[in-house]
Amino acid sequence: MTTSALAWVNGSDAPEKPSLNIGFMALTDCASVVVAATQGFAQQQGLSLTLKRQGSWAGLRDKLATGELDAAHCLYGLVYAVHLGIGGVPASDMAVLMGLNQNAQAINLSPALQRQGVTSPEALARLVHQQSARLTFAQTFPTGTHAMWLYYWLASQGIHPLHDVDSVVVPPAQMAAHVQAGRIDGFCVGEPWAAAAVAQGQGFTLATSQTVWPDHPEKVLASARAFVEQYPNSARALVKAILAAGRFIEQSPENRRSTAQLLSGSAYLDTALGTIEPRLLGDYQDGLGNHWHDHHALRLFDQGRANLPYLSDGMWFMTQFRRWGLLRDDPDYLGVARQVQQWALYREAAQALGVHCPDLPMRSSLLIDGIRWDGSDPHGYARSFSLHALGELPDARIGL
Length: 400
Hints:
The chain has 400 residues and is α/β, with parallel strands linked by helices. It has helices at 3-9, 31-38, 41-44, 57-66, 76-84, 111-115, 121-130, 145-156, 175-180, 193-199, 209-212, 225-230, 232-249, 253-263, 273-280, 311-323, 333-340, 343-352, 378-382, and strands spanning 19-24, 48-53, 71-75, 94-99, 105-109, 136-139, 166-169, 186-190, 204-208, 219-224, 283-285, 291-293, 365-366, 372-373.
């Protein structure tokens, strides 16, 4: 046991740094961070959280790596990209403190494609392979979750995401505007921006990320590794505060509704309540006349299952970086995950709150293409796909 852990066990658990700057993007899945900061959960842990809304994932990345932000609501893959030095930034030791949510991202197509009758995966695949003009799809960050869900979903439909279509980066809140301007034909984004596009008549939701991987990892609470090493009690207290906030949100539909109301405010998502609340409650309508309650909708807590920083979850993103040529060579998948994922810290926080935490830091999942991922053979998994780009670097244009 480390010295810091012994100190915590012995009762010296006061946060070393009680005032923290926490970054977030205007997305529904920042909910537990906002609730922790504003509804007393942070104060219960001896913390004061100053929330800093960011305009882009690139900006958030830079402030997180330099320590301008102590921690942040962050794309899972972004953390690993910074740690590995992918994407034109120097490698910097990073940490995943906990998962913030599972599920609840979406792939939308434009009204122009809808008018052409492209309202199914099969129709999209036919169009891509038959027409000479290339379609353009947007995601939110080259190594982020939305890029990986988009690439994986397209590949599962026989569409190569780097060869058959163009991929560009657009900030989440700007997706509908880029569709309206005719710059993109589809996108993958977090809520409420997919629902907002549907509400504005800017296309329809063709697939959700939970159809790619039910209960997939999504946003995480991330920090520079130095933050955890210098302020272990603050890091643990922060996890406890956000974990308690997520538990509170999911205690009742009323709590979810009040959270949606809070998030709609100008300081947070600054958008209509009607585009936030339904999908936060799991109620979907896709813009094609279909309505359903999704059994794998946004999960912020799920008895702690949404928050576990599984080693295998972190490893999965690295397999996809290797699959699509973002990594030239195979990393030490398990070794890197052990460096980044703060499993022991999370377990201490969860146990202090009475939240169940399994003994094993791995899990097994079946994805849309019928391939099972359990972390046992990352090298083989990265090479197992019929569509891949091992050894290549994607030519993705950044920004529009």
